[in-house]
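User: I'm curious whether this sequence folds into something compact or stays loose and floppy. Could you predict its structure so I can see for myself?
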Amino acid sequence: MTQLEARLAAVERQLRILRLALAVGIALACTTAFPLLLARQAPADIRTRNLVIEDERGQPRIRLGAPLPGSGTPRTGLRITDTRGFERLGLNLFDDGRMVVGIDGPPPANGPVGNLERINLVADSDGTSYIVFKDRRSSVVARFYVDGADRPFLEFSDYSTDPAVRRRIGLAGDDNPR
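Assistant: Here's the prediction. I'll summarize afterward.
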């Protein structure tokens, strides 16, 4: 197996994990929220701008909001946090039409936290799409995307070197964009 095939297999494996994590997150939200809402006789429609699901200690673990509070840029979405309150999954629809799923890595046990984003799945407002994979330094190491001309590309990058190294693989062949 060539190095390229091994890398491609790793990206495909990460994509399967991303899909599974998204399905588990949505299933968790549904199985947690809906039985609570349906347990008592409720009106046909329940209307609210925000729903917060807490754990047994009273800590917010799942937030569903329109807009989602505390997010900076206005968005409608779902946020799942870990026991320490760190976001681990975000599902966001932005006002410009962009849809973003973000999966975060676990925070360190101690020391500075930094950016925990590891995988982003995006359907952009212009109709393009991409998946970004980041390392523990929050550097983009791989990207699978469809450009504005509807061409698919797989791109690997190493920004720890000077100059940075990038390799893009597409149907028309490989190149090294600057």
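Summary: The mean pLDDT is 86. The radius of gyration is 19 Å.
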